[in-house]
Design brief:
The complex is a heterodimer of chains A (459) and B (178). Chain A is an all-alpha fold. Chain A contains 16 helices and no strands. Chain A has one domain. Chain A is globular, with a radius of gyration of 23 Å. The mean pLDDT of chain B is 88. Classes of the chains: A mainly alpha (459), B alpha+beta (178).
Chain lengths: 459, 178
């Protein structure tokens, strides 16, 4: 029997949950954020700011829909500008949520129980942001459903040999499974809120959402099987999604894209940026909602160590790319290396190396891993670095390929920036609403971490 | 003595260990139309009431197989029969290119079958249930554990079953009105 609220002897790690809690206090503390606490001025202000930023996105989209993709900076040779950069960046951020909720569940890492709910919400909102961009990029976004195979009077079908069609399936499956996984996890907690809520309308809403869950042992049995199966299915799914995204590039012949290292390197980068986003969200959330009892130093430190590890996989990817540029003996591949380091975008490439490889090495220092302020800053740095990585992959590879006559430059317009920054507002506004309207930490899974619940499991 | 007004008897417990122990004894006493309730999943509890197998995994497997086979056949049919297009000289039935969509649809249909299968077998959504008539039952959403013996059980008798439940030393016993 392992008491997760206690520090184990000979171990310097913080406990997964602060000692002194029981089933009731966990329930009260988490449900009170949704039901009891008055709406704070800080929350209103934060939501307002995000809402204002969100308007930029709506402005940009409106203009885009009326005028077409000409409002963006994309042109030949750079046909994939911010839209694809942002798409890859956002979907990568989503990956950490699924990693935490599915892969760490299968690996029996029970510390994940207090961060999986909001990490899943993060996945959902990040996938929503990501999903918008390819649709905007279609030129005629209102016929996006042409991407799906359905019988139509035009007598045509999508080209299933194209990675872009694979992407449609990968991303839509990922979005659907993430939504279902998140909702299934919420059902028992919604039932708890149904009984805890004092307003009739809230009881009704939570009651309907909880589908009449009554905590029956038979139901729990099927529930646990279904949850485990979903985790087992989501694990290969999450690895496949960024693999398929990397195929969008790797299947093409453009130098800098056509490489076999892309799938693992993209997946590692996705988890890297995803954990950075988890920390960027978790550090303020635990502080402002006083959740230090449940999101402890252990979670923060573990996430920092995952970043350190995936950061090195990403560094290996950069190193291997550079090696293959040389080892292939291909003159165009060699030029990719030269152009990244000495071309017009050299500043971006050097910044990318600094943000993603150099600066995060300070995470080796334990004191910095445990310092909320610095860890927050390093996570922001990694998010910027990973965005730059996608920028370098998309733009720098495209702007100079085989023929000198087709060299060009890419200049993002104000609309490009408005839509990108607007999605940040959309994402954070969704997170603000989620924090207030739903239990942000899984109540029933936290109950299983208590020593009295552990006791029965090991009889 | 059967009472058409009563759905069953509900005994309340305060700890997980007590409810698992009580569930074992209820099952051993010959009661079969029983159920147990806990604020979080306890594997020992559903084992104790004799619920060893649930059908979620086969449903998930079936859904996954249907999704995958369907996706592959659809791609094969589109590319060889309905809409054959020569792309880069590749064969019409270029199976390696079809694997990714097949894989994704296996996951999608497998996952959705697991979830909707679980809900269907649980009989959810079911907004009303007689247990919700018992005020004390709300405690299950927080920190209480329950065992119910339903009136439909062959061995059920209002007086005798109540006496039996008393021997389990519950915190309280309630009658569940239909």
């Amino acid at each position: 029997m392992k008491d997760l609220t206690q520090v184990e002897p000979g171990e310097q790690k913080a406990p997964v949950m602060a000692p002194g809690h029981n089933y009731g206090t966990i329930t009260d503390k988490i449900s009170s954020i949704v039901l009891k606490k008055p709406v704070s001025k800080g929350w209103i202000f934060g939501l307002l700011v995000c809402f204002v930023i969100l308007q930029w996105m709506l402005y940009g989209i409106t203009l885009l829909f009326f005028k077409g993709v000409g409002v963006w900076g994309v042109n030949i040779p750079i046909g994939w500008g911010f839209a694809i950069v942002n798409f890859v960046w956002w979907i990568g951020i989503g990956h950490a949520g699924t990693l935490i909720s599915a892969i760490l569940l299968l690996l029996r890492q029970s510390w994940r129980n207090s961060i999986n709910r909001f990490a899943e919400a993060m996945t959902l909102f990040a996938v929503a942001c990501a999903g918008m961009f390819p649709i905007f990029h279609l030129g005629r976004p209102w016929v996006f459903y042409w991407l799906f195979p359905y019988p139509n009077t035009m007598g045509y079908w999508p080209n299933f040999r194209s990675p872009l069609v694979w992407d449609v399936f990968a991303v839509s499956t990922y979005g659907t499974i993430s939504l279902v996984f998140w909702y299934v996890g919420l059902i028992p907690d919604l039932a708890t809120l149904r009984e805890t809520a004092d307003k009739k309308v809230l009881k009704y809403i939570f009651g309907m959402l909880a589908l009449g869950w009554r905590f029956s042992a038979r139901h729990w049995s099927r529930y646990e099987t279904a949850y485990l199966l979903l985790a087992g299915l989501a694990t290969p799914l999450v690895l496949s999604v960024h693999t398929v995204v990397s195929f969008d590039f790797a299947i093409g012949i453009v130098p800098g894209w056509h490489t076999t290292i892309f799938p693992p390197y993209f997946v590692a980068g996705a988890i890297y940026s995803g954990f950075a986003m988890v920390l960027v969200l978790a550090i303020p959330i635990r502080k402002f909602y006083h959740l230090e009892d449940f999101i402890t130093a252990r979670h923060i430190e573990n996430s920092a160590m995952v970043m350190l590890a995936t950061g090195w996989i990403v560094a290996y990817g950069y190193g291997f790319e550079a090696f293959m540029n040389w080892y292939s003996g291909d003159v165009y591949e060699g030029f990719v290396r030269f152009n990244r380091l000495h071309g017009p975008y050299a500043f971006w490439y050097i910044s990318l190396l600094a943000c993603n490889i150099l600066i995060p090495q300070v995470l080796w220092i334990r004191r910095l891993r445990l310092n909320n302020f610095w860890l927050f800053m390093i996570s922001m740095d990694i998010l910027i670095g990973m965005w730059l990585e996608r920028f370098v992959i998309v733009v720098v590879s495209l702007h100079r390929d085989f023929l000198n006559s087709s060299f060009g430059m890419y200049y993002p317009t104000q609309i490009d920036w408005a839509i990108f920054i607007g999605t940040l507002g959309f994402f954070t506004a969704c997170m603000f609403l989620f924090m207030r309207l739903l239990p942000s930490i899984s109540i029933f899974e936290l109950r299983t971490l208590l020593p009295e619940a552990e006791a029965v499991k090991h009889e | 003595m059967k009472d058409p007004e009563i759905y069953g008897l509900l005994a309340e417990f305060e700890t997980a260990e007590a409810v698992v122990e009580a569930a074992h004894r209820t099952y051993a006493a010959g009661y079969r139309k029983i159920d147990a309730y806990s604020p979080f999943p306890i594997e020992e509890l559903w084992e104790a009431i004799g619920f060893h197998k649930n059908g979620v995994a086969p449903v998930c497997l079936l859904g996954g197989l249907l999704g995958g086979t369907g996706a592959y056949l659809l791609q094969w049919w589109i590319n060889t029969i309905s809409y054959p297009v020569n792309i880069g000289g590749r064969p019409y039935h270029s199976w390696p290119a079809f694997i990714i969509v097949t894989f994704e649809m296996t996951i999608l249909f497998g996952g959705l079958s697991a979830v909707f299968g679980m809900l269907a077998m649980n009989g959810l959504p079911q907004p009303y249930h007689p247990l919700f008539n018992v005020d004390r039952f709300a405690g299950v959403t927080r920190d209480r554990f329950f065992i119910a013996i339903f009136a439909s059980d062959a061995k059920y008798d209002l007086v005798e079953t109540r006496e039996f439940l008393q021997t389990l030393h519950p915190h309280s016993i309630s009658e569940v009105p239909t």
